[in-house]
Amino acid sequence: QEHVQEKIDYVYKVVVIGDSAVGKTQLLSRFTKNEFCFDSKSTIGVEFQTRTVTINNKVIKAQIWDTAGQERYRAVTSAYYRGALGAMLVYDITKRPTFDHVAKWVEELRAHADNSIVIMLIGNKADLVYQRAVPTEDAVEFAEDQGLYFSETSALSGDNVDTAFLRLLEEINGVIY
Ligand code: GDP
Protein backbone atom coordinates (compact mmCIF):
# COMPACT_ATOMS: atom_id res chain seq x y z
CA GLN A 1 0.00 0.00 0.00
CA GLU A 2 1.16 3.40 -1.00
CA HIS A 3 2.16 5.79 1.74
CA VAL A 4 0.06 8.90 1.52
CA GLN A 5 1.36 11.88 3.38
CA GLU A 6 -1.41 13.95 4.80
CA LYS A 7 -1.52 17.35 3.27
CA ILE A 8 -3.65 20.11 4.72
CA ASP A 9 -5.85 21.91 2.21
CA TYR A 10 -7.37 24.46 4.57
CA VAL A 11 -7.09 25.66 8.15
CA TYR A 12 -10.34 26.82 9.74
CA LYS A 13 -10.26 28.84 12.92
CA VAL A 14 -13.23 28.24 15.18
CA VAL A 15 -13.78 30.08 18.47
CA VAL A 16 -15.67 28.63 21.42
CA ILE A 17 -17.52 31.25 23.47
CA GLY A 18 -20.18 31.46 26.14
CA ASP A 19 -20.40 32.00 29.88
CA SER A 20 -17.96 30.50 32.32
CA ALA A 21 -18.41 26.83 33.30
CA VAL A 22 -20.82 25.89 30.50
CA GLY A 23 -18.34 23.25 29.30
CA LYS A 24 -16.39 25.02 26.55
CA THR A 25 -13.06 23.47 27.45
CA GLN A 26 -14.55 19.99 27.82
CA LEU A 27 -16.29 20.24 24.44
CA LEU A 28 -13.01 21.20 22.87
CA SER A 29 -11.10 18.35 24.46
CA ARG A 30 -13.89 15.90 23.58
CA PHE A 31 -13.74 16.92 19.94
CA THR A 32 -9.97 17.15 19.56
CA LYS A 33 -8.81 14.34 21.88
CA ASN A 34 -11.97 12.37 22.69
CA GLU A 35 -11.29 13.09 26.35
CA PHE A 36 -13.32 14.42 29.25
CA CYS A 37 -11.35 15.59 32.24
CA PHE A 38 -13.16 15.26 35.57
CA ASP A 39 -10.97 17.48 37.69
CA SER A 40 -10.77 20.26 35.20
CA LYS A 41 -8.57 23.22 35.69
CA SER A 42 -8.98 26.82 35.23
CA THR A 43 -7.92 27.07 31.63
CA ILE A 44 -5.38 29.80 31.76
CA GLY A 45 -3.10 30.25 28.83
CA VAL A 46 -4.26 27.39 26.63
CA GLU A 47 -4.91 28.81 23.21
CA PHE A 48 -6.14 26.26 20.74
CA GLN A 49 -6.32 22.57 19.92
CA THR A 50 -6.56 21.08 16.47
CA ARG A 51 -8.18 18.15 14.75
CA THR A 52 -7.87 17.27 11.10
CA VAL A 53 -10.93 16.06 9.24
CA THR A 54 -11.84 15.39 5.63
CA ILE A 55 -14.81 17.24 4.13
CA ASN A 56 -15.70 16.97 0.43
CA ASN A 57 -12.33 15.32 -0.23
CA LYS A 58 -10.50 18.26 1.29
CA VAL A 59 -8.25 17.85 4.31
CA ILE A 60 -9.23 20.50 6.79
CA LYS A 61 -7.37 21.34 9.94
CA ALA A 62 -9.83 22.71 12.47
CA GLN A 63 -8.06 25.06 14.85
CA ILE A 64 -10.39 25.40 17.81
CA TRP A 65 -9.76 28.26 20.20
CA ASP A 66 -10.61 28.33 23.89
CA THR A 67 -11.21 31.62 25.71
CA ALA A 68 -8.75 30.46 28.37
CA GLY A 69 -11.04 31.85 31.06
CA GLN A 70 -11.01 35.40 29.68
CA GLU A 71 -14.82 35.51 29.69
CA ARG A 72 -14.80 35.67 33.48
CA TYR A 73 -13.20 39.09 33.32
CA ARG A 74 -15.23 40.22 30.30
CA ALA A 75 -11.93 40.47 28.54
CA VAL A 76 -12.40 38.41 25.41
CA THR A 77 -10.38 40.48 23.01
CA SER A 78 -10.85 41.23 19.32
CA ALA A 79 -7.67 39.26 18.68
CA TYR A 80 -9.54 36.18 19.82
CA TYR A 81 -12.14 36.63 17.08
CA ARG A 82 -9.72 37.68 14.36
CA GLY A 83 -9.83 35.35 11.38
CA ALA A 84 -12.47 33.10 12.94
CA LEU A 85 -14.66 31.42 10.34
CA GLY A 86 -16.90 29.69 12.86
CA ALA A 87 -18.12 30.04 16.43
CA MET A 88 -19.50 27.56 18.91
CA LEU A 89 -21.70 29.60 21.24
CA VAL A 90 -22.25 27.44 24.30
CA TYR A 91 -24.76 27.61 27.15
CA ASP A 92 -25.56 25.09 29.89
CA ILE A 93 -29.06 23.55 29.60
CA THR A 94 -29.21 23.38 33.42
CA LYS A 95 -28.44 27.10 33.97
CA ARG A 96 -31.01 29.49 32.56
CA PRO A 97 -28.83 32.63 32.92
CA THR A 98 -26.21 31.11 30.61
CA PHE A 99 -28.93 30.89 27.93
CA ASP A 100 -30.24 34.38 28.69
CA HIS A 101 -26.73 35.71 28.02
CA VAL A 102 -26.52 34.11 24.58
CA ALA A 103 -27.97 37.25 22.95
CA LYS A 104 -25.08 39.27 24.41
CA TRP A 105 -22.59 36.80 22.96
CA VAL A 106 -24.23 37.08 19.55
CA GLU A 107 -23.86 40.88 19.79
CA GLU A 108 -20.23 40.44 20.74
CA LEU A 109 -19.70 38.24 17.67
CA ARG A 110 -21.47 40.71 15.39
CA ALA A 111 -19.28 43.48 16.77
CA HIS A 112 -15.92 41.75 16.65
CA ALA A 113 -16.04 38.87 14.21
CA ASP A 114 -16.31 38.71 10.46
CA ASN A 115 -19.85 39.15 9.04
CA SER A 116 -19.79 35.77 7.35
CA ILE A 117 -18.87 33.87 10.52
CA VAL A 118 -20.91 30.67 10.88
CA ILE A 119 -22.41 30.38 14.36
CA MET A 120 -23.63 27.26 16.06
CA LEU A 121 -25.58 27.55 19.29
CA ILE A 122 -24.80 24.65 21.63
CA GLY A 123 -26.88 23.58 24.62
CA ASN A 124 -24.33 21.54 26.54
CA LYS A 125 -24.70 19.13 29.51
CA ALA A 126 -27.65 17.41 27.84
CA ASP A 127 -26.85 14.37 29.99
CA LEU A 128 -28.25 16.23 33.03
CA VAL A 129 -31.85 15.55 31.98
CA TYR A 130 -33.41 16.02 35.40
CA GLN A 131 -31.78 19.41 35.89
CA ARG A 132 -32.85 20.88 32.58
CA ALA A 133 -33.76 24.57 32.91
CA VAL A 134 -33.81 25.55 29.23
CA PRO A 135 -36.45 23.85 27.03
CA THR A 136 -35.11 22.78 23.65
CA GLU A 137 -37.90 24.76 21.91
CA ASP A 138 -36.67 28.06 23.43
CA ALA A 139 -33.26 27.51 21.91
CA VAL A 140 -34.65 26.34 18.57
CA GLU A 141 -36.74 29.50 18.38
CA PHE A 142 -33.85 31.77 19.29
CA ALA A 143 -31.55 30.05 16.80
CA GLU A 144 -34.07 30.35 13.96
CA ASP A 145 -34.68 33.97 14.81
CA GLN A 146 -30.96 34.80 14.75
CA GLY A 147 -29.99 32.54 11.87
CA LEU A 148 -27.81 30.22 13.93
CA TYR A 149 -27.39 26.47 13.72
CA PHE A 150 -28.30 24.62 16.88
CA SER A 151 -27.48 21.40 18.67
CA GLU A 152 -27.64 19.97 22.18
CA THR A 153 -24.53 18.10 23.27
CA SER A 154 -22.91 16.34 26.17
CA ALA A 155 -19.17 16.72 26.47
CA LEU A 156 -19.42 14.17 29.28
CA SER A 157 -21.01 11.34 27.26
CA GLY A 158 -19.76 12.66 23.93
CA ASP A 159 -23.29 12.77 22.51
CA ASN A 160 -23.57 14.98 19.42
CA VAL A 161 -20.18 16.61 19.95
CA ASP A 162 -18.56 15.36 16.75
CA THR A 163 -21.76 15.86 14.79
CA ALA A 164 -22.03 19.48 15.92
CA PHE A 165 -18.41 20.39 15.18
CA LEU A 166 -18.47 18.57 11.84
CA ARG A 167 -21.70 20.32 10.87
CA LEU A 168 -20.12 23.68 11.67
CA LEU A 169 -17.02 22.83 9.62
CA GLU A 170 -19.18 21.69 6.70
CA GLU A 171 -21.16 24.91 6.82
CA ILE A 172 -17.93 26.93 6.87
CA ASN A 173 -16.78 24.90 3.88
CA GLY A 174 -20.05 25.77 2.13
CA VAL A 175 -19.71 29.49 2.84
CA ILE A 176 -16.21 29.68 1.49
CA TYR A 177 -16.25 27.43 -1.53
P1 GDP B 1 -15.78 26.33 30.65
O1 GDP B 1 -15.49 27.27 31.78
O2 GDP B 1 -16.93 26.80 29.82
O3 GDP B 1 -14.57 26.00 29.82
O4 GDP B 1 -16.31 24.97 31.31
P2 GDP B 1 -15.51 23.60 31.60
O5 GDP B 1 -15.27 22.86 30.33
O6 GDP B 1 -14.36 23.88 32.46
O7 GDP B 1 -16.63 22.79 32.40
C1 GDP B 1 -17.21 23.34 33.60
C2 GDP B 1 -17.74 22.23 34.47
O8 GDP B 1 -18.82 21.56 33.84
C3 GDP B 1 -16.70 21.15 34.79
O9 GDP B 1 -16.91 20.73 36.11
C4 GDP B 1 -17.02 20.05 33.81
O10 GDP B 1 -16.66 18.79 34.31
C5 GDP B 1 -18.56 20.17 33.70
N1 GDP B 1 -19.06 19.73 32.38
C6 GDP B 1 -18.61 20.14 31.16
N2 GDP B 1 -19.32 19.57 30.18
C7 GDP B 1 -20.23 18.77 30.78
C8 GDP B 1 -21.27 17.90 30.29
O11 GDP B 1 -21.50 17.74 29.09
N3 GDP B 1 -22.02 17.26 31.24
C9 GDP B 1 -21.80 17.39 32.57
N4 GDP B 1 -22.61 16.71 33.41
N5 GDP B 1 -20.84 18.20 33.06
C10 GDP B 1 -20.07 18.88 32.18
List the keywords.
177 residues; alpha/beta; 6 strands; GTPase activity
Mean pLDDT: 90
Helix/strand structural class: alpha/beta
Q: Treating each run of at least 4 consecutive H or I residues as one helix, how many helices? A: 6
> Residue ranges: pLDDT <50 for 5 or more in a row?
none
Radius of gyration: 16 Å
Helix content: 25-40%
Biggest sheet character: 6 strands, mixed
Major sheet strand order = 2-3-1-4-5-6
Strand content: 15-25%
How do the strands and helices of this protein lay out in sequence?
Elements: E1 10-17, H1 24-33, E2 48-55, E3 58-65, H2 78-81, E4 86-92, H3 96-100, H4 102-112, E5 118-124, H5 136-146, E6 149-152, H6 161-176
Parallel strand pairs: 1-3, 1-4, 4-5, 5-6
Antiparallel strand pairs: 2-3
The protein binds guanosine-5'-diphosphate (GDP).
Question: Can you give me a brief rundown of this structure?
Answer:
It comes from Erythroxylum novogranatense. One of its GO terms (molecular function) is GTP binding. The protein has 177 residues and is α/β, with parallel strands linked by helices.
